[in-house]
Amino acid sequence: MTYVVTDACIKCKYMDCVEVCPVDCFYEGDNMLVIHPAECIDCGVCEPECPAEAILPDTEPNQEKWLELNTKFAEEWPNITQSREAPEDADEHKGEEGKYEKYFSPEPGQGD
Ligand code: SF4
Ligand code: SF4
Predict the structure, then answer these.
(1) Would you give the DSSP letter of residue 24?
(2) Structurally, how many domains does the chain consist of?
(3) Ligand closest in space to the Cα of 25
(4) In a structure prediction context, what are the per-residue pLDDT tens digits for the chain, which is 112 residues long?
């Protein structure tokens, strides 16, 4: 198993998760993060840290899409290990439905 980041992260990017991951396996896209499934050690520390509840174990139902997305983009986006300021409009998008369809961007973030 692994943990995955879902579309609840899109446009939130609070980044509380990256600070706690013991193996630095978060990767940064333009407006969301993903977890590298092969690097994640399934410790679960990040899950309760996420204010958007965007991180789930892939053993939960219907996570195949997010596992695929995390696997693909963890290979393409830069590693991120330290949090930065969340976007100014992050709270406005917290809990919004359908964020993948509306906003997903395959572009890489800046990383660190
Ligand atoms: S804490 Fe949650 S919303 Fe913030 S960047 Fe991490 S996964 Fe995304
Ligand atoms: S479950 Fe642990 S190893 Fe995996 S991403 Fe979260 S903090 Fe990192």
Answers:
(1) -
(2) 1
(3) 2
(4) 999 999 999 998 779 999 999 999 999 999 999 999 999 999 999 999 999 999 999 999 999 999 999 999 999 999 999 998 888 888 888 889 999 999 999 999 999 9
**CATH number for 45:** 3.30.70.20
Tell me the H-state helices in 1-112.
16-20, 64-74, 99-103
Number of residues that make up the chain: 112
Whether 67 is in a domain gets the answer yes
pTM for the model stands at 0.95
Pocket test for ligand 1, best of 2, 3, 16 (most atoms within 8 A of CB): 16
Report how far ligand 1's centroid is from the alpha carbon of 105 (Å).
16
Task: Tell whether 63 is covered by a domain.
Answer: yes
DSSP 49: G
Which residue segment(s) compose the domain that 12 sits in? 3-81
